[in-house]
């Protein structure tokens, strides 16, 4: 099969042994031509590129053991536009296979110049960055941290003053080393979940068509296809790949309401902005556009963190206040369904099928689905924040906090995703290059309050806390998780995962007005996962937990006669058959067996059985409590009745401890499996499972005992 595109053949050497082809690329007025003159001296050949009037300037230079053929490309701001000069520069880079490309960057205007550098790196080219005009930058009060910039770009960075020939020898040495070791940089821009999904699809098609393409070069080709840069080279592609790229562009443009090239350009600008802001320590002259003006407040060293905390509080207030009415509608609907189904059986009948449907299915699944409005509204708010560009700023703001615990903002991105679900959050740690930082982040992600815990909070908080305190309590629960994650990460980085890591690139895309289509799709996708989970995993577990709460059956005559059973201690209602049956069941016996361990936390056997079910999925905690109380009181079902029962049986302190334990304790089964897969070891999965469970037990005991001693919430 012929090679798909010469774009990806970055390591081929078309010159004689010991001879290397070097191109200089850069923005107009970046000092590129001056640097070309300083590198090559008087041995230059000037002509025109074939078929166009654009000047082609080449020269030769011998350096140590290499003969260099150096070409000065036309000045260009981007490779994705269609001016004559830019097309010429692009064609040389993707068809003439330079061994090394020198990206000439104006140090005094770093952010704008780095856009082209980012593009060159994405093409999979071996790049050396010439940080030119450092004298001008210094005179303007700009100082660039070259070591950090090199670490972020994963490429050599050399400072030069071309018009004085300063740094030329260092640049030649960097070119020599890069030509000997020409592997492409591993630098990459995150284009967001929607575009990244399409890049992965095209990447897979390209890998099948030509397995020899290196992964970074293949990714660059996929991005080029989405931009339309490579689509003009139809002869190098199968028609299917071009059609797939066109379909991908159509999907993204319909979703976001903007052309694909604009969406990609914005992300690249965000990467360039992040690079500049992390490496420029002082700057007397900075671009004052709307994004920059807003960022002066939102990422301010003093105001940034309080604004972020206030924003999250507003999200929780919105989630609770708006969700109250639709939760009532869903609860009423399930109540009517339960009454309708229950009415099929004669009054006083003891039908197992009736109990299964009403108590197990409707009581279990309905008890979880009633909190769907909270989930939908939370994801709506998070989608708005993500699509507007604010969540990227949150990572920037939190970077200072993360550094204090041995991590950085790149770890905070998966942790933010953990507010939705731990599974994609753990998978998102793949972007963290350091294994130590990645493992640390994976192990603490379950401490972030995922959407599966929200039904527990939504059940407990209204049961024990007044309306005006509900958003605050929910906010506090999320903050406790973040704080515990930070402390745990600090301990892990000081012990098991000690050692330093490379800095990371914070991408700051420009602010955008989110499109309704994009926000609604993201909200719908995440909410549907919750509904699907309720209809599959939670349904299955609810049926299992109903069976455990129903069997073995207690002989009514034996129970009525008052003969002793294992449940006598808890059946304080005399001969109340339902209560005695529940206590006699397997779930009752399990709960009683757990009581010595959970009693110091203020929990009884009912809570214990719900915690057992929560191991499979956190939402099952609510479903199991619903099953327990509906079995005890078959005539009353629904979240309102459940809250009344909780108020009657427990104190606000116990309610808070329930939420605390659910927050910290072992992650669900699916999370354990993902940890095993992503870490490559059952050992880390077991360490996380048992470590978090023990931590939850200790912390909850301390809170309950101290709260009881101080008479708080009792």
Topology:
Blueprint: E1 19-26, H1 32-40, E2 44-48, E3 55-63, E4 66-72, H2 84-95, E5 100-106, H3 110-122, E6 127-132, H4 134-139, H5 146-153, E7 157-159, H6 168-180, H7 192-209, H8 215-227, H9 239-256, H10 260-279, H11 290-298, H12 304-342, H13 352-369, H14 372-388, H15 390-403, H16 409-417, H17 422-427, H18 435-444, H19 454-464, H20 470-494, H21 516-535, H22 537-550, H23 556-561, H24 577-584, H25 586-598, H26 605-614, H27 620-632, H28 639-649, H29 652-664, H30 669-679, H31 682-709
Parallel strand pairs: 1-4, 1-5, 5-6, 6-7
Antiparallel strand pairs: 2-3, 3-4
Helix pairs in contact: 3-10, 7-8, 7-9, 8-9, 12-13, 12-14, 12-20, 13-22, 13-27, 14-21, 15-16, 16-18, 18-20, 19-28, 19-29, 21-22, 22-27, 25-26, 26-27, 29-31, 30-31
Give an overview of the whole structure.
By secondary structure, this protein is α/β, with parallel strands linked by helices. It folds into two domains: 1-287, 3-Layer(aba) Sandwich (Rossmann fold); 313-499 and 520-709, no CATH class. The chain is 61% helix and 6% strand. It has helices at 32-40, 84-95, 110-122, 134-139, 146-153, 168-180, 192-209, 215-227, 239-256, 260-279, 290-298, 304-342, 352-369, 372-388, 390-403, 409-417, 422-427, 435-444, 454-464, 470-494, 516-535, 537-550, 556-561, 577-584, 586-598, 605-614, 620-632, 639-649, 652-664, 669-679, 682-709; strands at 19-26, 44-48, 55-63, 66-72, 100-106, 127-132, 157-159. It has a seven-stranded mixed sheet with strand order 2-3-4-1-5-6-7, with helices on both faces. Strand 5 (100-106), helix 3 (110-122) and strand 6 form a beta-alpha-beta unit. The model is unreliable at 1-17, 231-235, 283-288 and 563-574 (pLDDT under 50).
């Amino acid at each position: 099969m012929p090679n798909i595109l010469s774009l990806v053949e970055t390591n081929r050497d078309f010159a004689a042994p010991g001879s290397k082809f070097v191109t200089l690329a850069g923005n107009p007025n970046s000092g590129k031509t001056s640097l070309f003159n300083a590198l090559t001296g008087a041995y230059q050949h000037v002509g025109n590129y074939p078929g166009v009037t654009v000047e082609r300037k080449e020269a030769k230079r011998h350096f140590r053991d290499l003969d260099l053929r150096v070409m000065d490309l036309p000045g260009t701001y981007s490779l994705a536009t269609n001016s004559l000069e830019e097309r010429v520069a692009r064609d040389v880079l993707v068809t003439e296979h330079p061994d090394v490309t020198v990206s000439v960057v104006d140090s005094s205007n770093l952010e704008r110049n780095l856009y082209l550098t980012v593009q060159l790196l994405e093409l999979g080219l071996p790049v050396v960055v010439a940080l030119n005009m450092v004298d001008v930058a210094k005179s303007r009060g700009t100082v660039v941290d070259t070591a950090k910039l090199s670490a972020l770009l994963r490429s050599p960075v050399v400072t030069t003053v071309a018009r004085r020939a300063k740094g030329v020898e260092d640049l030649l040495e960097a070119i020599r080393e890069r030509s000997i070791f020409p592997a492409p940089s591993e630098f990459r821009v995150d284009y967001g979940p929607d575009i990244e999904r399409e890049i992965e699809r095209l990447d897979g098609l390209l890998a099948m068509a030509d397995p020899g393409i290196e992964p970074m070069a293949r990714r660059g080709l996929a991005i080029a296809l989405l931009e339309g840069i490579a689509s003009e080279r139809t002869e190098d592609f199968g028609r299917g790949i071009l059609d797939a790229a066109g379909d991908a562009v159509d999907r993204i443009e319909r979703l976001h309401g903007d052309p694909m090239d604009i969406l990609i350009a914005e992300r690249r600008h965000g990467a360039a902005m992040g690079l500049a802001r992390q490496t420029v320590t002082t700057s007397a002259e900075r671009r004052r556009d709307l994004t920059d003006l807003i960022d002066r407040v939102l990422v301010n060293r003093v105001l940034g963190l309080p604004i972020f905390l206030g924003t999250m509080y507003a999200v929780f207030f919105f989630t609770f206040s708006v969700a109250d009415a639709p939760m009532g509608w869903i609860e009423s609907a399930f109540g009517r369904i339960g009454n309708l189904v229950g009415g099929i059986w004669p009054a006083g009948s003891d039908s197992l099928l009736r109990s299964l449907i009403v108590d197990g299915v409707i009581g279990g699944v309905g008890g979880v689905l009633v909190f769907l409005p909270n989930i939908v509204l939370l994801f709506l708010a998070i989608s708005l924040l993500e699509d507007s560009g604010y969540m990227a700023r949150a990572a920037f703001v939190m970077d200072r906090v993360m550094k204090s615990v041995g991590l950085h903002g790149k770890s905070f991105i998966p942790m933010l995703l953990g507010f939705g679900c731990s599974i994609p959050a753990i998978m998102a740690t793949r972007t963290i290059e350091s294994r130590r930082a990645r493992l640390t982040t994976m192990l603490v992600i379950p401490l972030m309050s995922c959407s599966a815990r929200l039904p527990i909070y939504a059940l407990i908080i209204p049961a024990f806390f007044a309306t005006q305190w509900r958003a605050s309590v929910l906010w506090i629960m999320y903050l406790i998780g973040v704080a515990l994650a930070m402390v745990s990460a600090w301990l892990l980085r000081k012990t098991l995962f000690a050692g330093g890591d490379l800095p990371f690139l914070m991408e700051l895309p420009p602010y955008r007005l989110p499109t309704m289509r994009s926000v609604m799709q993201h909200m719908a996708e995440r909410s549907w996962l919750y509904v699907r989970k309720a209809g599959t995993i939670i349904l299955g577990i609810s049926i299992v937990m109903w069976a455990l709460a129903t069997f073995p059956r207690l002989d009514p005559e034996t129970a009525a006669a008052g003969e002793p059973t294992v449940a006598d201690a808890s059946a304080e209602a005399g001969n109340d058959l339902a209560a005695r049956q529940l206590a006699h069941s397997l779930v009752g016996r399990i709960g009683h067996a757990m009581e010595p361990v959970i009693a110091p936390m203020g929990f009884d056997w009912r809570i214990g059985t719900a915690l057992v079910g929560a191991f499979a999925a956190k939402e099952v905690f609510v479903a199991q409590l619903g099953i327990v109380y509906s079995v005890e009181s078959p005539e009353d079902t629904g979240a309102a009745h459940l809250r009344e029962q909780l108020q009657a049986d427990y104190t606000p302190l116990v309610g808070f401890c329930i939420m605390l334990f659910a927050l910290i304790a072992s992650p669900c089964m699916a999370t354990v499996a993902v940890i095993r897969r992503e870490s490559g070891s059952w050992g880390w999965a077991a360490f996380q499972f048992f470590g978090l469970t023990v931590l939850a037990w200790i912390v909850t005991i301390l809170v309950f005992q101290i709260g009881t001693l101080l008479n708080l919430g009792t």
